[in-house]
Amino acid sequence: MKKKYYTIFFFVVMVVSLFGFKYINKTGDTTIYKIPSIEGTYKFEYRKLPDGTTLKPPKVMGIQTFTHGVRNFNIMWTDKNGKHFSFSVYSNYKFTDSTYTETIHFGVMNDEISGKGLTYITNQTKTVPIKYDGKKLEFKFPFDPPATTFEGNKMIAAAKGMFTDYWEKIK
Hints:
The protein is mainly beta. It is built from one helix and 13 strands, in the order αβββββββββββββ. Strands 1, 2, 3, 4, 5, 6, 7, 8, 9, 10, 11, 12 and 13 form a 13-stranded antiparallel β-sheet that branches.
């Protein structure tokens, strides 16, 4: 008799757990994915502009590293008039199952192209939602225009109406 109650109890717990997860998740998808590590060094490969033009180094150059919760990002490009834009950042980052949080300790932007000159960013924290489908990790860096997709050893950063940058993980 006890065995029958244990079987019924186990069945009820499983059903409640399954339906409870679907209710909480609100998508009906009961698959739980572990956020992949993005750790490594990514080298800028090329940039596509909205008009179809492709720019490669030395017109646009960049490198960024994610390691042990630290992000170091550097990019520079030159416009057709020889003016430069550069952006460098030292920050900490953290993922949860649903968010990416970044704290910029020091960032400097030099925008000769628009004439803004130097801009400094210090001690700012922002959090953005992430999307992970088991294959692609997608989110928008909190302080940058591009929406970013990590898939395998590739990273694509797309700033709507501006550019799409292609990066490759080199280590």
